Amino acid sequence: MAADPPQEITPELLLHGYASGVFPMSDSVDDPEIYWVDPQRRGVFLLDRFHVSRSLARRIKKAPYTVTVNQCFSAVVRACANRAETWINAEIFDLYTQLHSMGYAHSIEVMDGEELVGGVYGVVLNGAFFGESMFSTRTDASKIALTYLVARLKYGGFCLFDTQFLTDHLASLGAVEISRAEYRRDLEKALLTDADFFKLADDTQPSGILHLSNHTS
Known about the structure:
seven-stranded mixed sheet; single chain; 8 helices; three-stranded antiparallel sheet; alpha+beta; 217 residues; Aminopeptidase; 36% helix
């Protein structure tokens, strides 16, 4: 379900939208219009059921990439928008850049030397993380970013990881779909929960990340 927002969307209004259970989208990078989305079915990660395959665990243990936090937020958003179909237009890019500078939006980057090869970004409000988008130009790079993110959310005391929609890729990692009513209940609880996105040390070893991000199979 979508509804037209007010003419001007500010970072503060965007945060209010998230707290109310809706999020913004545009139809394409060239479309100046932005609308609010409130799905009947919502994709979420249950943090204690995040699934790491044996092959992904082996790759993470080998540590072929460097994983960083908030080192190139704008580049992650640009990379997420660099695809044939995207909902990230210029205004949305600017809004999330502002949220990042305000301390509400964060990114996890996967680096191959100096090259950004994967990442994920989203918005934090108390105990809720609202995942916005991710990208990958190397095998498993986005899965590695998500695994590091889940470890950070679990260690920091988060209780809601919103993925907006459920895709096959997210489902393979343990994401599920819940009703709008259930999502609103979980969101209300998360907004009353104190959490710390930066509680996990940036230099946590891969073995620690795997331990935090749950079981392997």
